[in-house]
């Protein structure tokens, strides 16, 4: 899931 | 970071500067939906709670701070500085009809049952429909100042540019964020009508006017 690495988009 | 995302973010920045410039030079927030602007504050605050927990880059952190600060500043301009020019009687879209369903969606679709993840998800869904009070107001009055249409065009361009960014990221990193992509497609779709009038009228030098 994208949140594993945090949300890097604005 | 890729060129699409960077240009999208620049377009987002530009939209905010255009809006502030419009309010300050005309000394009026006529034609701007306070409800849309208030929802943006809610969007940025709920999404960027990770400002305190996750560090991505100096770019990322500065943009987050800028978006929160500038959106609050716009509310100040509308509610305090140029309050008499804000006409709530034409800003009649019922925001509660947006927040409710978005909250339900956020509880169903999220990347983890934590306060920050559910609020992040809520902010994504809320952003996708935040422009509706503004577009509704435009529809109701049937016209807009040219500078206001440039603001909306820049904001729409920001959303549109995120789509090639996601396509690029899918192929280059195998990265897919289904919540952002779904909400982003919906959000961009909301601008299609506006873009049609913007390209066929405003960019041809005519005033933004909707057919009666």
TrEMBL record, chain B:
It is found in: Endoplasmic reticulum membrane. Belongs to the ERD2 family. Keywords: Endoplasmic reticulum, ER-Golgi transport, Membrane, Protein transport, Receptor, Transmembrane, Transmembrane helix, Transport. Its main location: endoplasmic reticulum. GO terms for cellular component: endoplasmic reticulum membrane. Signal peptide: none annotated. GO terms for biological process: protein retention in ER lumen; protein transport; vesicle-mediated transport. The keyword Lipid biosynthesis does not apply. This is ER lumen protein-retaining receptor. It comes from Heliocybe sulcata. It is a multi-pass membrane protein. GO terms for molecular function: ER retention sequence binding. It comes from the Eukaryota. The chain crosses the membrane at residues 65-82, 94-113, 179-199. InterPro entries: ER_ret_rcpt (IPR000133).
């Amino acid at each position: 899931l994208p949140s594993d690495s945090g949300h890097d988009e604005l | 970071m890729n060129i699409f995302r960077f240009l999208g973010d620049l377009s987002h920045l530009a939209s905010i500067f255009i809006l502030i410039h419009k309010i300050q030079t005309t000394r009026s927030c006529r034609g701007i939906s306070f409800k849309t602007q208030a929802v943006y504050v809610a969007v940025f605050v709920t999404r960027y709670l990770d400002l305190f927990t996750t560090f991505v880059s100096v770019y990322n952190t500065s943009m987050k701070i800028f978006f929160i600060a500038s959106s609050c500043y716009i509310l100040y301009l509308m509610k305090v500085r140029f309050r008499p020019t804000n006409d709530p009687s034409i800003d009649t879209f019922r925001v509660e009809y947006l927040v409710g369903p978005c909250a339900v969606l956020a509880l169903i679709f999220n990347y983890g049952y934590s306060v920050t993840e559910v609020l992040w998800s809520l902010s994504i869904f809320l952003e996708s429909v935040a422009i509706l009070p503004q577009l509704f107001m435009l529809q109701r009055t049937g016209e807009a100042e040219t500078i206001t249409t440039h603001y909306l065009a820049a904001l729409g361009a920001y959303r549109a540019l995120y789509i090639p960014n996601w396509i690029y990221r899918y192929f280059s990193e195998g990265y897919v964020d289904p919540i952002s992509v779904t909400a982003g497609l919906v959000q961009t779709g909301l601008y299609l009508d506006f873009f049609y009038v913007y390209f066929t009228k405003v960019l041809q030098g005519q005033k933004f006017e909707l057919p009666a």
